Amino acid sequence: MAIHPPADRIWWKKPIERIEVLWIGLALIWAVIMFLMMPFWHLYGKQNLSNEAYRIRPEVFAAKAEAMTAKYTVREEGDTGIPVVHPPPGSDIYLVARLWEWWPILELEKGKSYRLHLSSMDWQHGFSLQPTNLNLQVHPGYEMVVTLTPTESGEFGVVCNEYCGIGHHTMLGKMYVVE
Ligand code: CUA
Mean pLDDT across the stretch 117-125? Predict the structure, then answer.
C-alpha cells in the first residue's frame, strides 16, 4: 500500500532504464528546438500574432469606445439597439467585452488596416473571430492592441471563448467587412 514506505529503502539509487533516458533526452531536444523556433515563428509564421498590451482602467477604455461609437455609428443592428460603427480606415478601433456582450459592432473595409483595441469591463473574456479563427484573451485592466487587415468581406462572428459565467454561451458579437 502506498501509505507504507517501500520495502527497499534505497530504490531511488537504482540506475534509470536506458530507454527512459533516451525518451527524456528526445523530449528535451524537441523542447529546445521548439523554444528556439519561437522568435522565428513570431517573424515569419502566420500563427503568432504581433500584439501589444497596455494597462488601462476599464472606465478609460469604455470612454474611448464610446467616443468612437458616437462619432462613427452608421446604423443600428436590427432592433437590438447595438450600434454598427464604420470607423475610417487606418484608425484606432475599440471593442468592449463585458458580461455578456461585445460592443459595438464594427464595420471595416476590406484591405484596409486598423488598430484593434480590446479590453474587458469585468472578467476575463476570449475574443474569437469566426470563421477566421483569430483568438485573443481579453482581460480587465489590460488593453490588447493588434493590427487588423481584413482580407475577405462578409459577416463574421465574434465568439467568447473563455468561460465567463452563466451567460457565456450568449456572448456573441459580429463584425462586418465591406468591399
Ligand atoms: Cu465572455 Cu465567455
Answer: 96
